[in-house]
Amino acid sequence: MSPQQFRDISWNGLWKQNPGLAQLLGLCPILAISTTMVNAVSLGIATVLVMTVANLAVSGLRNFVPYEIRIPVFILIIAALVTMVDLAFNAYFHDLYLVLGIFIPLIVTNCIVLARVEAYAAKNDPLTSTVDGIMMGIGLVWVLALLGGLRELLGAGTLFSGIEMIIPGASAWSVFGDDYPGFLIAILPPGAFFALGVLIAVFNVINARLAARARRQPPPTAPAPATRAEGDGEAVAAG
Amino acid sequence: MSGRYTATRTSLRTGGIMLLFTLAFTALMASTFQVTRPAIEASRQEAQMRLLAEVLPPGSYDNALLDDYVRFGPAPQIGMDAGGRVWRARKAGEPVALIIEGAASDGYAGRIGLVVAVHRDGRLSGVRVTEHKETPGLGDYIDPRKDRRKDAPWIAQFTGATWAEVDTAAWTVRKDGGSFDYRAGATISARAVTRAAGRSAAFAAQRMDALFAAPAGGLLGDTQ
């Protein structure tokens, strides 16, 4: 893998085709879990793990899977991997499992995993596919962290609540003090849509600025980080 | 002729490959399950022990609490339509306390699972919520981990309350004329937990002797 390839994959995963902001895949777990920052990041980490392993496995097996039955086989692989990750966490990292446990089975329903497997890992070699899985996952993690942090801050006036489940002894940070009355809608499902909408708006504004600047002074090598994603996953419903 | 032959062959081949993948990954999952089972069972027991230790101090008894339990049949009045379990704490063979499973079906968002520990003399040793879906940040203070007041969690007020001293009508929140506190804004969750804790405590207290006398692992039929 050339450094240029690595840069492209990273840029796609972290920004340009960000799963949370551009591809808008896997909205169901994103919106359901992002009530606090710790929950959101926990789900993100579990997803990174599954996406990386799923991309690696599918990429390694891609030459043995007939085109007609690739989707059922990919789903089989993802479901089996998620089950194995779930069991392994339960057995060997039980404290972490108590935090992540309810999120891990949810990952099967996350179409971003299937989307990356189908759109990338099925056509590329194991190394680049693994990097793609990691970068897409990290792209999801930072959006989830921002979304969870925003909702938690507005809704409950705290940050890092639940951190004691991961780091014993640590405690939540009451940003606005204990008298903060709370803003319930931020924590309820509609708040998730509002917050994600705001994030996507900011994302699009930044992209428009970048595109405008690239048009004014076209850099010699770097391609313009223009417009929205190429609709990689639009065939798969955002579930 | 040959076209149809090829189609059949292709389907058979594709089906065969699908079958191979299914078998391979099922075998992988089954072996992972077998390998991890002892470790999972151990952590499950440890987690259960930790929960029981929250409602009953581990020093107050000396028997193997997890193994010394009695099942009871369907008891809709304490929310356990499919029956549940009672653990029996003893010290030097003498009865110390019962820990009973209970549930409230009238929470704000469905069922709230509880464990309630009752001393031999009817005093409550503690109540913990084991599962709930109450509104985050509003009704979820019934779970002390989510309670913002860490120094005096809401659920701690049940410790030391006595079934004999508080009559049935008083086992609810102050707003309904009962004797227990609630937090402004979310009365329903508090009311559901308070009333369910009272019913479970009464259930255990009224059958104290029968529950302690039943053989370990046995089934108590008298639940009405």
From TrEMBL, chain B:
Its main location: membrane. It is found in: Cell inner membrane. It comes from the Bacteria. It is an enzyme of class 7 (translocase). Transmembrane segments: none annotated. The keyword Transport applies. Keywords: Cell inner membrane, Cell membrane, Electron transport, Flavoprotein, FMN, Membrane, Phosphoprotein, Translocase, Transmembrane, Transmembrane helix, Transport. Its EC number is 7.-.-.-. The modification FMN phosphoryl threonine is found at residue 187. Residues 107-204 form the FMN-binding domain. Its cofactor is FMN. It is a single-pass membrane protein. InterPro entries: FMN-bd (IPR007329), Ion_transpt_RnfG/RsxG (IPR010209). PANTHER family: ION-TRANSLOCATING OXIDOREDUCTASE COMPLEX SUBUNIT G (PTHR36118). Belongs to the RnfG family. Part of a membrane-bound complex that couples electron transfer with translocation of ions across the membrane. The complex is composed of six subunits: RnfA, RnfB, RnfC, RnfD, RnfE and RnfG. This is Ion-translocating oxidoreductase complex subunit G.
